[in-house]
Specification:
Chains A, B: InterPro entries: ArsR-like_HTH (IPR011991), HTH_ArsR_DNA-bd_dom (IPR001845), WH-like_DNA-bd_sf (IPR036388), WH_DNA-bd_sf (IPR036390). 2 copies of one chain form a homodimer. With 110 residues, chain A is of the alpha+beta class. Chain A has one domain: Winged helix-like DNA-binding domain superfamily/Winged helix DNA-binding domain (Arc Repressor Mutant, subunit A, Orthogonal Bundle). The first copy, chain A, is built from 6 helices and 3 strands, in the order H-H-E-H-H-E-E-H-H. In chain A, a hairpin with a 2-residue loop joins strand 2 and strand 3. At the A-B interface, helix 1, helix 2, helix 5 and helix 6 of A face helix 1, helix 2, helix 5 and helix 6 of B. Chain A binds a DNA duplex (30 and 30 nucleotides) through helix 4.
Chain lengths: 110, 110
DNA sequence: TTTATATGAAACCTTTTGGTATTATGTCAA
DNA sequence: TTGACATAATACCAAAAGGTTTCATATAAA
């Protein structure tokens, strides 16, 4: 077990998480895949701006884009979030010792 | 239970986590409190640059600074990281159903 | 008291970020 | 085929981020 959390390539994930609009997009896509126009309609900014955020989310592997006719369907890829969650997981023993132990059990029985 | 994760004031925390140097500082401080000079010595940048990173970490509540003589001791405050971990926790059912259930148990028996 | 040390603070610079507007392209529908 | 629609792509801009150098201040030590 390493003493410090792995840096991995967590960078594009943490970078994607740093913007509140992008976190809101993640929450929205957790409810189901959506085309760009539908996402953009929910925010007070232009569609190209939203498209840029989607590009950054895609760069972090957080969403996958699938062409469907003239639409581009954006689908959440939650596994990418695990990279960030795992990094933070190295510290959660500080605030919840019991949870850390349960996680150990879960990982051992995998 | 809300359908979407709370936005809370996760912003300063996620912002602080977005930089690799700052994440490395967090890892370092997890091993114990340190003065600025000692932290700066571990990175290939000037002390004022590191001081700026520490200011951002402090802004996110991730570290606490305590004056001790002419030194300023930086101490990790892991509870602040829980804000980010909780946000991500709303998604971890996607990648580990069992862990999510265990977390429910932990939270119910608190 | 003088000197060295630890830090704070300001000014400055370059790159990145987050947004805009505009134009171009591919696809569906009449 | 023509027109409307969904998106891509480009150029542009202001502000924030991440770094530097320089100078000031407070404390410790000689």
């Amino acid at each position: 077990m390493p003493a410090r959390p792995p840096s991995a390539d967590a960078q594009p994930v943490f970078r994607a998480l740093a913007d509140p609009t992008r976190r809101a997009i993640i929450s929205m896509l957790a409810e189901g895949p959506r085309p760009i126009a539908e996402i953009a309609a929910a925010f007070d900014m232009t569609r190209p701006a939203v498209a840029k955020h989607l590009a950054i989310l895609k760069d972090g592997g957080i969403i996958a884009v699938e062409a469907k006719g003239r639409e581009r369907i954006n689908r959440l890829n939650p596994e990418a979030l695990k990279t960030a969650a795992d990094w933070l997981g190295h510290f959660d023993r500080f605030w919840d010792e019991r949870l850390a132990k349960l996680k150990d059990v879960v990982e051992r029985t995998s």
